[in-house]
C-alpha cells in the first residue's frame, strides 16, 4: 500500500512537469499594458523581423521610426543604415509637462534620451539630450521639460540585435 501511495504522488508531481508546467512568457513580446496606467506608455519590442515600438498617451498612439540597426536572422546578420533625418518626427504626441512615462519592453537593456533637434552645417542632431533613466521593463520617468518640441530616442538591445527608435513629443 505504501508503494502505491508513493507511485501516485510521484505521478502527480511529474505530471506537472510534463503536461501542466507553468506557461512561459515569450521572449519576443513585452507584457501586456497595465490598463490603469494613465501616463505615457513607451513600448519597445524585438521581433524576428526587427525592432518595433510605439508611444501612447490619452488614447493616441504614435509608431516609432527605426534608425540604423543590425539584426540577426537565422543564418545571417542584416544591418540597415538610415540618414540622420530619421530622427526628425513626422508628428508629435502632446504630453503635459510632468507626465509619468512607463517603459514596457522585452529588451535586455534600453537607453532612452530626450532632447530638442537642431540642424547645424547640414547635420541633424539631438541637442543637450537628457537621459530618462529607464532601462528595463516597468521603469518609470517623469517628462519634466520646458514647453516645446522634442525627440525621444529609445535605443533597445535584444538577443537578436539592437536598434534605436525615434518618437516626437510636444510638451504642453
Count of discrete structural domains: 1
N/C terminus separation: 75 Å
What sort of overall outline do the alpha carbons produce when their principal axes are compared? globular
Strand content: over 45%
Helical content (DSSP H or I, runs of 4+): under 10%
Strand-pairing-aware structural class:
mainly beta
Q: Please give the radius of gyration in angstroms.
A: 21 Å
Largest sheet: 8 strands, mixed
The average pLDDT value, as a whole number, equals 81
How many distinct helices?
Answer: 1
Residue stretches low in confidence (pLDDT < 50, at least 5 long) are 1-29
Walk me through this protein's architecture:
The chain has about 170 residues and is mainly β. The protein has one domain (about 30-170). The protein has one helix and 13 strands. The chain has one helix at about 1-20, and strands at about 40-45, 50-55, 60-65, 65, 70, 75-80, 95, 100-105, 110-120, 125-130, 140-145, 150-160, 160-170. Strands 4, 5, 6, 7, 9, 10, 12 and 13 form an eight-stranded mixed sheet that branches. The protein has a five-stranded mixed sheet with strand order 3-2-1-8-11, with no helix packed on it. A hairpin with a 2-residue loop joins strand 9 and strand 10. The longest helix has 17 residues, at about 1-20. It is globular. The relative contact order is 0.22.
Amino acid at each position: 500500500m505504501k508503494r502505491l501511495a508513493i507511485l501516485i504522488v510521484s505521478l502527480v508531481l511529474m505530471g506537472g512537469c510534463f503536461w501542466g508546467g507553468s506557461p512561459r512568457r515569450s521572449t519576443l513580446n513585452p507584457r501586456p499594458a497595465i490598463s490603469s496606467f494613465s501616463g505615457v506608455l513607451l513600448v519597445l519590442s524585438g521581433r524576428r523581423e526587427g525592432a518595433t515600438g510605439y508611444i501612447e498617451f490619452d488614447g493616441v498612439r504614435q509608431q516609432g521610426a527605426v534608425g540604423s540597426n543590425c539584426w540577426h536572422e537565422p543564418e545571417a546578420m542584416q544591418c540597415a543604415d538610415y540618414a540622420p533625418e530619421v530622427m526628425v518626427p513626422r508628428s508629435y504626441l502632446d504630453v503635459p509637462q510632468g507626465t509619468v512615462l512607463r517603459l514596457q519592453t522585452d529588451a535586455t537593456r534600453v537607453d532612452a534620451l530626450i532632447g530638442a533637434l537642431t540642424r547645424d552645417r547640414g547635420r541633424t542632431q539631438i541637442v543637450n539630450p537628457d537621459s530618462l533613466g529607464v532601462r528595463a521593463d516597468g521603469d518609470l520617468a517623469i517628462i519634466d521639460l520646458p514647453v516645446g518640441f522634442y525627440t525621444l530616442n529609445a535605443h533597445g538591445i535584444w538577443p537578436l540585435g539592437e536598434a534605436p527608435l525615434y518618437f516626437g513629443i510636444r510638451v504642453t
